[in-house]
Each structure stands twice: as C-alpha cells, then as structure tokens.
C-alpha cells in the first residue's frame, strides 16, 4: 500500500468511511455497502480499497492480470475492516488469510450493477417471461470472472445478505446492492460454483432477521434441509423434437386424452422388513418402471402430483415453497428433465399439478418475506386460508402476478412439460371461499369474485397459448363458474379443460348404492349428460377420492368380493363411454 506524496494526509483521512457508515456496516444495517466497500477512485488515477471481512487475520491486494503483490490492506480499529490506498487503479484480487487457511478471490464489491434496466422494468410490470434466468442464483461470467449472480426481490428490507457455508453463514460478509425502485437486491460472488447451498439473511422492516430460502431457486437441498442450491444449467440432450412438433395436434379437442395421475414418491418404492418406506425411487428408476407400465395400459399422459420442493415429505406436495425447483427427493433438475425426455420418446405426455393459490407458513419460505406481507395479502381475511392453514398469493400485486406466471412458463419451456393442472381454482375465484359472513373482504365492486385472480388466470392462459403452443392448462374447479374452458376472447377463463367434479361425485354416489336401491338414483348417472358439453370436461377419479379414509374404489363397491370387482368393471366401462376425457389415480386401475 502506498500514498500519493502530494496528498498523503488527505489520502489517509479518506481511507476510512464516515463513522456512521462504519457503525451501520458493523451492525449489518447498511443499505448500500457498495458506497463504502470495494474500489473508489481518488480523482488522481489511484484508488481506495476497503474490505469488511469479519474474523480475517490479514488481507493482501494482488494485481488480477499479472499476479503482482500490490500491498496489504491495513486493519483498522474496527475489527474486520481493512483499508488501503494505491497509486494506480487496476483490477485486483484479495488474498485473505483466515485462522483455517487462505483464500484468493476477486472483490465482490468491485463489480458494477448486474441486472439490466429492461429486466427490472419487465419484472416490476409483472410480465417478465423468463424470470428464472433473471432472479435467483445464476452462474455468470462478469468481466471475465466466473461466479454466481444473486438477485432477490425484497423491497421493504433494510438489508439483504447472501449466506452459506462459503461465508460461515455470516450476514456481515456479503450484503447486497439494492436496485431502486424495483426493490431487487443483487450481488455477484466470484468463483462460486454450482452445488453451493445458500439462503438470504433479510433484515426486515421491523428488525426481524430470518434466513429465507430463495423464492427463485432452481435447485434445493435434500429435505429436511431447507437451503437453496446454486443450480447448473440443464444439460439434458433433448430427443423429443418429433413429440414437441406434433404436440398441438395430439392435444386437439377431438384427440384421445387418457391421464394416469400419480404421486412420484409413493407410486412404487423400496420397503424395509417392516413394510415401511426405506427409499423413494429416483427419476431414472421411475422412468424404467413407470413408462412401460403406463404405455401398456394405454394411457396417453401421466399427471404428476406436485414435484416442486415442499417441506413435508409425508404429504402429497400441495403445500410447496419452491415454484421453480423440482424436489431433491427424486434427483436433480437434470434428472427430471431426462425423465420428461424419456416419456416423450415413448409418446407419453407429462402434466404437472401446479399450485398458484396458496403456500405454507414455514418461516424459511415466502411468509413475511421481507418483514412485510410481500407475496401474501396483508389482511388475514384475504390472505389466510382457514381450511389449509396456508397463505394466499396476492395476485393483484404485479410482481407476484409475474412471479407465478414465470413459474408456469419455467416448467413448460425449460422442462418441456406438456401441461399444467391448476390446483384449487375455486378457492382462487371466490373471496368468500369456505368463509362465513364477516370473514371476507368484498372486491372493489362489492362482490365476492376475486378480480385479481380472475385476471391472472386469464392472462396465464393467454400467455401459455403464445409462449408454449400446444401445452394444456387444466382447471380443478368445483363450482358452476361459467366459461372456465371458453377462450378469453369469448369472456371465459381460457382453460383447455375443466375437471368434472359434479360427475365424479354423482357417479360415485350412485355406484356405491346396493343394486336394490339404484333404481331410485338413476338420475345421478343421467344428470351429467345435461351439461356434458357446457365445458370441455375431464372425468376425474383422482387422489381426492381415496384420501382421508374415503377408501379405494374397490372398497366403495357394494357386495362380496366378486360383486365388488364386477361393479368396478361396470363403473370404469361407464366412465370410458361417457363424454369427456379420462383421468384415473394410481391404483384405481386395479381397485
């Protein structure tokens, strides 16, 4: 380190930031760490360099291009704060000595703003079509340096830091830059590689300091660990060009559509000696077992219950937190992409259950993300779902609208998924869904319709038509909302199909009756034909009919064992002959 002879005294004085900046830095509350850390010109061709590295023993500056040792940064009276002045401004590395070893790397605070203004504008507008390549953790090369660019939306946070094993989970080490006015925080960490676990430490508006998983994470740690992971770009060798080109024709309304619904973690698995689950199959193992099975039965598509990462492994997966990351329980994102590729090569389509209605309250997730109700409504009468103890997405906020829209496109475009079954649409459409009088907030017109969710669903279907031609969007909608499968131009919601929950309820109620009494219930079979063409329907015998003690299909049938199977054969024959596409939950094909 050296000082200009001409202004030696001034340079020494300028080495240190203002006392209040140092105090905010030490307390990890500084809103703009780039204003004081990293390189800063001295107006004479040289530069000041400041680094805040708590627990570091010493810091040396090395020329990036030549490897020449330029000098040491001086330790200040503030533990962890190192400063220095150099006569010539040039790219540099920091050689940091710790108690456990030495580290050589570029200075994260030597890089300029990362995200483009157009990316930020489209995000704020809620219309960024490839948000998964913009926010989150992205492997990037910046100014010739490989590393990871982090970006997260937290507009009400006082400070956001990236933490992980790479910095001993110390939020003082890597505070991020806030990009006004969008509320996106960003930081480039040089030399970080794929597979690194991380979270965001967010100092909320009220001083709460949670560790949050990345809402835009493309990969996650294996539960029960809740950290996000830096993902590698997909490397799958797609061999499904013929399928993708013919998909629109395969999905025309007059084409056959027969769907096998399953839960990836329990369709088949390894059991221990006590009959308990010892291990769930990977995507590779499932491809070897599932695809031939489904193909032999004559199904055209499989529908996977949510495969996005979710906290509770004992669930079906509908309370998920990672809208962009497949669960690590079954393998990597590349493994899932290879599974879809294998399905397409066998001419089997892949539909995903997708949940834009609600999310769980886990503290590492989206709830109170930046110390405020960011992704959810602030009013519990709008933002809390009493049936499921979950929070409801505030789809009226443009950033949340765009976040969910980008999630749908992520699965359809990056993973070649053929369709999405949108879960719990009825709970999205009505503000008074499952609420008593006085427990809900009317819309701006005084009505019960959730106008923000309606706009989102219509926009979703229009965008999918444009961005993923031939992909299906299917509504699980249990009310008599009109025009669910009509186009948005006709005033409908724009879905390709709607689950016929009324047919499912009526027909199952009929078939469970003893044949002696069925003469009094024939209307339950015939009523479905009255409205069979009012929507494009899928007839679903889904997971909802075999959970919570409802018994399997065979157990629902009356009579002895022979009669039960005879009734089941008759029922499935009736289902396949009835107008509407078909869906059958795993196991229902044999009872």
Strand order of the largest sheet: 17-20-21-25-26-27-28-29
Secondary-structure-based class equals alpha/beta
Shape: elongated
Alpha-carbon Rg, integer: 28 Å
Rounded mean pLDDT is 93
CATH topology of the largest domain: TIM Barrel
Show unreliable segments: 1-10
The CATH class of the largest domain, by name, is Alpha Beta
Report the CATH architecture of the largest domain.
Alpha-Beta Barrel
Distance between the termini: 79 Å
Number of helices in the DSSP assignment: 14
Taken as a percent bin, the fraction of beta residues is 15-25%
CATH superfamily of the largest domain: Glycosidases
Search tags:
single chain; 591 residues; alpha/beta; Immunoglobulin-like; TIM Barrel; 4 domains; 14 helices; disordered N terminus
What's the quick description here?
With 591 residues, the protein is α/β, with parallel strands linked by helices. 24% of the residues lie in helices and 23% in strands. The protein has 14 helices and 29 strands.
């Amino acid at each position: 380190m050296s000082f200009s002879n001409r202004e030696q005294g001034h340079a020494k004085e300028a080495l240190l930031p203002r006392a209040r900046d140092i105090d905010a830095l030490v307390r990890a509350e500084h809103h703009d760490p780039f204003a004081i850390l990293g390189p800063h010109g001295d107006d004479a061709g040289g530069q000041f360099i400041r680094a805040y590295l708590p627990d570091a023993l010493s810091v040396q500056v090395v020329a990036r291009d030549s490897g020449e040792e330029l000098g040491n940064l001086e330790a200040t009276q503030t533990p962890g704060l190192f400063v220095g002045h150099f006569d010539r401004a040039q790219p540099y590395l920091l050689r940091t000595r710790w108690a456990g070893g030495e580290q050589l790397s570029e200075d994260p605070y030597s890089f300029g703003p990362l995200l483009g203004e157009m990316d930020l504008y489209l995000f704020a507008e809620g219309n960024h079509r490839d948000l998964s390549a913009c926010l989150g953790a992205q492997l990037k090369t910046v100014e010739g340096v490989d590393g990871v660019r982090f970006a997260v939306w937290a507009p009400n946070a006082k400070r956001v830091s990236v933490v992980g094993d790479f910095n001993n989970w110390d939020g003082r080490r890597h505070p991020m830059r806030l990009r006004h006015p969008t509320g996106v925080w960003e930081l480039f960490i040089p030399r970080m590689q794929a597979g690194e676990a991380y979270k965001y430490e967010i100092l909320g508006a009220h001083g709460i300091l949670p560790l949050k998983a990345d809402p835009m994470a493309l990969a996650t740690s294996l539960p029960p660990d809740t950290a996000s992971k830096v993902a590698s770009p997909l490397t799958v060798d797609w061999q499904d060009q013929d399928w993708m080109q013919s998909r629109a024709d395969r999905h025309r309304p007059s084409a056959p559509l027969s769907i096998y619904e399953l839960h990836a973690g329990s369709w088949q698995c390894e059991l221990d000696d006590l009959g308990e689950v010892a291990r769930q199959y990977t995507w590779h193992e499932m491809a070897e077992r599932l695809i031939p099975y489904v193909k032999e039965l004559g199904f055209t598509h499989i529908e996977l219950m949510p495969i996005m990462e979710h906290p509770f492994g004992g669930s079906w997966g509908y309370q998920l937190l990672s809208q962009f990351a497949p669960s690590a329980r079954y393998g990597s994102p590349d493994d899932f992409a290879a599974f879809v590729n294998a399905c397409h090569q066998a001419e089997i389509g892949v539909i995903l259950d997708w949940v834009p209605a609600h999310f769980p309250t886990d503290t590492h997730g989206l709830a109170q993300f930046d110390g405020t109700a960011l992704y959810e409504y602030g009013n519990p009468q709008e933002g809390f779902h009493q049936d499921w103890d979950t929070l409801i997405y505030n789809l009226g906020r443009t950033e949340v609208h765009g976040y969910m829209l980008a999630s749908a496109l992520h699965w359809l475009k990056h993973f070649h998924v053929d369709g999405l079954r949108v879960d719990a649409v009825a709970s999205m459409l009505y503000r008074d869904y499952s609420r008593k009088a006085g427990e809900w907030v009317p819309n701006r017109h005084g009505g019960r319709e959730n106008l923000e969710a309606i706009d989102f669903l219509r926009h979703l279907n229009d965008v999918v038509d444009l961005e993923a031609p031939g992909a299906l969007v299917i509504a699980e909608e249990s009310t008599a909302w009109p025009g669910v499968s009509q186009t948005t131009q006709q005033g409908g919601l724009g879905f390709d199909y709607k689950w016929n929950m009324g047919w499912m309820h009526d027909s199952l109620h009929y078939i469970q009756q003893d044949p002696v009494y069925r003469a009094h219930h024939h209307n339950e079979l015939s009523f479905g034909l009255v409205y069979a063409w009012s929507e494009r329907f899928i007839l679903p015998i889904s997971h909802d009919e075999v959970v919570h003690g409802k018994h399997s299909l065979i157990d629902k049938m009356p009579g002895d064992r022979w009669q039960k199977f005879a009734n089941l054969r008759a029922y499935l024959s009736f289902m396949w002959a009835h107008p509407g596409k078909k869906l059958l939950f795993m196991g229902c094909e044999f009872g």
